Amino acid sequence: MARKNRWGTPRSIYLYRTLGGWRHSMFLLNGGMICGALGKGSVSTSVEVAQAELQGIVEFLLDGEGSAHLQWGPSANGAGWIADVDIRGSLVDDIARREGPDLEVGDH
To answer: In this structure, is residue 107 part of a structural domain?
Structure first.
């Protein structure tokens, strides 16, 4: 039986480095947000490792009901990185029904 995702579906992520290591803010389709520290590295860990860890977190939240592509780019202020989360698979229709009719999920 699939685990029910009670947090929500990611739509974008802000990744930034602090003196204590990498942190993130994940914005959800339902308007919520998940914030936290990444656990696999210190402040010296490369941005690519931090981004890969966030890819794994997004896949965990999707729980096998779809896949996600994270398109990374620098933030406007240059202090971090922004990812748009592109969800693919059967989850797209379910998200549109669950999150609201005005939601633009994309053509997948």
So the answer is: no
